[in-house]
Design brief:
mainly alpha, Beta Polymerase, domain 2, Four Helix Bundle (Hemerythrin (Met), subunit A), 5 domains, five-stranded mixed β-sheet, elongated
Amino acid sequence: MAYPGAQRRKLPSVGRLGLVDRYAAADLTQLGWYSSYTQPHVDVLWALSRAPDADAALRTLVRLAEALGTDWEELSAALMADRGLRGRLFGVLGSSLALGDHLIAHPQSWKLLASPHGPEDAEDWALTLPSADELRTMFSDCVAETIDGAYVERLRALYRERLLVLAAIDLSPNVVESLPGLPFVAVGEHLADLADAALAAALQVAENLVCGAESPPRLAVIAMGKCGARELNYVSDVDVIFVADDAGAVSTRVAGELMAVAGEAFFEVDAGLRPEGRNGALVRTLDSHTAYYQRWAKTWEFQALLKARPAAGDAELGRAYVDAMLPMVWTACEREDFVVDVQAMRRRVAQLVPADIRDREIKLGTGGLRDVEFAVQLLQLVHGRADESLRVASTVDALAALGAGGYIGREDCATLTASYEFLRLLEHRLQLQRLKRTHMLPPPDDDEALRWLARAAHIRPDARHDALGVLREELKAQNLRVSRLHAKLFYQPLLESVGPAALELAGGLTPGAAERQLAALGYEAPENALTHLAALTNLSGRRGRVQTVLLPKLLYWLSDTPNPDAGLLAYRRLSEALAAQRWYLSTLRDSSAVAKRLMRVLGTSAYIPELLLRAPDVIQTYGDGPTGPKLLDTNPDAVARALIASAGRYADPVRAIAAARSLRRYELARIASADLLGMLPVTDVCRALTAVWVAVLQASLDAIIRVNVSADREAPARIAVIAMGRLGGRELGYGSDADVMFVCEAVEGVSDTDAVRWATSIAEQVRALLATASVDPPLQVDINLRPEGRNGPPVRTLASYAAYYAQWAQPWEIQALLRADWVAGDAELGRRFLLMVDDTRYPAGGVSGDAVREIRRVKARVDAERLPRGADPNTHTKLGRGGLADVEWTVQLLQLRHAHRVPALHNTSTLETLDAIAVADLLDSDDVDRLRQAWLTATRARNALVLVRGKPTDQLPGPGRALNAVAVAAGWAGGDGGEFLDNYLRVTRRAKFVVRKVFGD
């Protein structure tokens, strides 16, 4: 590219300056910087090239030249002579489009960035920042000197000017490395001082507008959050609380006017941290504040008070407020709801950021700023009661105090502080660009935006990477580092307090402090937890060393489960039981996915850990394979075939059933784990559990028949197992028994009496062997749905069943047959049985009106009498309002009335039958959906109850840890038991409305 002028070739080219804008050469010419070759021109051009975004800086300079007009020559000459001005101005223009716009609107403001002693002083190009008192005077004078009422415009301009100066000093080392920059802490402190001065000015304006010549009320403005801690961002809401001597209308109007003025001139003022939040009074007296915090405040409100500081208004009243509040802050961890509130806060934080942008969120994402701040504040709340050195507001100061006190290792403290300051620096640069409140990194594929961020954050190339590459590597490293330290922060000192003396840090946690820390993290019996930790870490050799490395992260994951006490105990039992298995600790060490999932299982379920103790190989399937979670690598049919084949290898029925139990145990552990971890929908869980039960029945029946039939003669009868109830509907839960009927048929030459006698012996042996006491969950085979119930024979011939149902079938027996299906034994006999009962359950012309009325009468009696004593009818998952029985009886009543003309209703599955009901328009689609949702919700809840309690139960617990665990096990997002219960009650209430409509019409 050729440029006008003979000397132009000696100037650095546009490309070498890093300029890519196609108008860059023309812009430089317009500014007069390509007119001649002099050293000052070269210095200016090279300084411009070092701006984070040289093209943006050049474009803004052109606009600034146009705004200055004839005064441009003065600025151009100053840039040639003043290296400090070059660094500050180009740093701002290459980093902040918004501050560039401010300069265009107020072009003479560039003089604020000139070196204080003039360009001739080659030794002192530095600018100094005004003190807090000087800032207050500036803003107060601005208000006093405004006589035309244009407060907002003048205050906004002054505030932007002070931001301009601060940002210029902060950014100048990007352009001129010898210029002194500002530590992160100093930036936050000056921004807080600036906010204090701005709030004071806004209060001054508000008092003028509201009170006029009358005396204003005594009003104190308490800074909270980052402003209160003097670690404010460039762009942030400023959280405040208002305290007044008289919380009347005048004080409230002044506070409201302050918020309005500040919102227009400086920043949004947020009073949402006040008592009762946005629903509470904007202004309260000191006594009212004190009474609220003593009686009603939640833990998060005391956590917020950690950073409370008088910022503006009546200083004496502000100090009195802080003096009254802080003592309550340091006793907050003694409150009964402290742990519940802390866990709820953690859930809320985790839910704030959508998963698809979590990796870009440097504040709320995993390993982000909130992780550090939350961890530090929790440790302060726990230990600050006994250690006054922790009673500081700033996160960086608190980290230093925690390190000095031994609550965090000194090296970890330094690392976490560095990571925190690095992430805050990126946050500042992102906000400066457009003066917008943001915490979002550019998309990972936006190289230009990331390259700008790297340059703006003083990131330099290294031997392996350019600045962009260094930023990417650093972000990845910082995220992992913060995540790791967030886990280690709480637990490494705990391990050191119970571990060998060689591991202890000087000034480590005392036993009392360790117990307080564990209690704050959700452990209800911290003394027992410390015992478990000591047992796990004080092992000799490799196991003890590996546990010491593993436990910080495992305990961190456990603390996020509903029952960390039970989880830690289960982990200890599992570790002791698998002490000889080298793969166990190695798998947990090498696979974070396996370890994290195992902790979630152990801290939520009492059912699965018992299975894992006897089927530990399932733990190895907790990892991810090439096509997804290994827990899902098998299918129910393949498992059933394997179980039957394994049992078939043994002639002894006891050993055969033991083999079947072993495979069933493994499969139950696999299904339950996948269910609790959210990998299997409830319908697949029910089908998989049904397949296992069916396979066990078939394997047991085969084993008993083998031992009862000699090799030289065939069995005297064929026998089939007919499933009833949820087994017949392929909808078994973890706590379900197997409801069955046995049907037989004599072979040629054998009397029915002998056939029934032999088949009865087979059936009773199957039931007895399966019910034999075992370490596994029980296997109860229930035959009470047979004809005549408990008084009828255990086994009948096909002809006997046909005769009974033709003559004696009761309405409840007809209803029970709706779910009859063959599952084991002679398939042909089972098929003929089902064809026979079709005439009973789906008769031509439909069941009689008397039978339907009887079903309705029995249902009313069940509702009135069958609910267990003391059970809550609203939350009993089986017999309660809108529960499983309600939905299933409703579906079955519709089958009884309409199956004779709607063949699709010939189905044993509740959900599939509901689909057929919708297609046939027997109910409105909305009503069908209400029934479907109720059935799914109640089934999830019922399964979750077994997973959590470890035994069959149908009653949901009341609010608390157990309900939270049920919510987690049922897959409720966030695991909040209260929300889960509210949803359950809402869904079942709507379903009950449909049930009443069907049974009442």
